[in-house]
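Re: beginner question about structure tokens

> Can someone show what the tokenized structure looks like for a real chain? I only ever see the sequence side.

Sure, here's an example I had lying around. Input first:
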Amino acid sequence: MCDRDEEGVDPLLSASATYRQVWHFAWPAIISNISVPLLGLVDAAVLGHLSAPEYLGGVAVAATLFSMIFWTFGFLRMGTTGLVAQARGRNDRYALRQWLLQSVVFAAVTGLLLILLAPLMLNFALPLFAASDPVVSQAEIYFQIRIVSAPAVLVNYGLIGWLIGMQMPKGPLLILVVGNGVNIVLDLLLVLGLGWATRGAAMATVMADYLALAVGLLMVRRILAGEDGQFSTEMVFDMVAFRRLIMLNRHLFVRTVCLLVVQAFFTARGARLGDEVLAANALLLNLMVLIANGLDGFAHAAEALTGESIGQGDCPRFYQVVRITGWCSLVCGGLFCLLLGLGGNALLGWLTNIPEVKEQASVYLPWLVAMPLISVWCFWLDGVFIGAVRTDMMQNTMLMATVLVFLPVWFLFRDLGNQGLWLAYTVFMAARGLGLIWVYHHFSKDNVWFVTRHDLLP
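And the corresponding structure tokens:
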């Protein structure tokens, strides 16, 4: 039985100490996460100031394809974090190295396969967007160059997940800030300086991705140099452990596919409404990603700290971390609402000087202003469930939100055009959060969190 109010709790685990620990963990994660969508915003701003909207629209379509491809393997980050956090709580040094090595090897092989399959993916996916010929042409240019970075992106997922699970959030901060900072500089140089347009944006991203990979590998090597143990071929070819990794990550795979289907559907339906609407949605979704990544800073703290508490068998600590990361996430969401409400239109003016695109984006901005307080619940609880490696519940709630909420709401309000799309997306995010809240309540009531999952122990 798990007693969340157990007496004799170490005074170091007081609420104030936990707030400090959460914030110490979260601020590097927030900065590093925000650096990712900021890169997208710079791409949008640079391309949005070119002569025609097809540059921005083409990159929006191609970026959606890469979201579908790369984020499908997001379990390499999320699954690794939960497993490593719990192994750290158990002080299992062998498992720490094994989860890292298996994730990195799997990521590298998968990245190479994606490069080989690139022509098939491009030929299959582009017609689904029904975009104009100029937009399709720009999307093809971006995709054919950007796909070369697939191994770097996927391996970095594993490295970042491992660093978060090890409670070293400054590692991902350095990896992402260095990589994205270089990307921004190269964007300005290649797109605006040399006039390479879409081709320049793609080349800048590829070079930055491989630089980020080099930084990540050097950082992990430095950390492990001070730890006992060593890698072995047995770690890679331990099929029992690898099967356990796949069993956990298959839920994250399905969950991510559902999310990307929603994103792709949103972009594709927007494309049918015209290039200006497509470009406006691209700007707003980039801002949405910025919000999500900012809120994910506290979710990352929840992943690492709840995972560690479960590995240690510390029930009071688990509930304390959940409560404190929840309050911090809520405050952060409120601040995002305030900032967007006060400065949203000014930000849109910075992102594009194309009047039609700015006008369209301003029409749908109120949906974005409300989004942080609607979506904060699913982002925060995703962190809790990842730390607890209860990814099956993440999968189930995402499936229900996609099939039973998003698609029916869009169908019912499809005559509203882009307003109907934003309504369906907003209700979808709310349904994700409500589903996870319901599961969390029942797991807590039935003391499920600390039930041993023998299938996930190495």
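Each token stands for a local structural state, so reading them left to right follows the chain. The mean pLDDT is 81.
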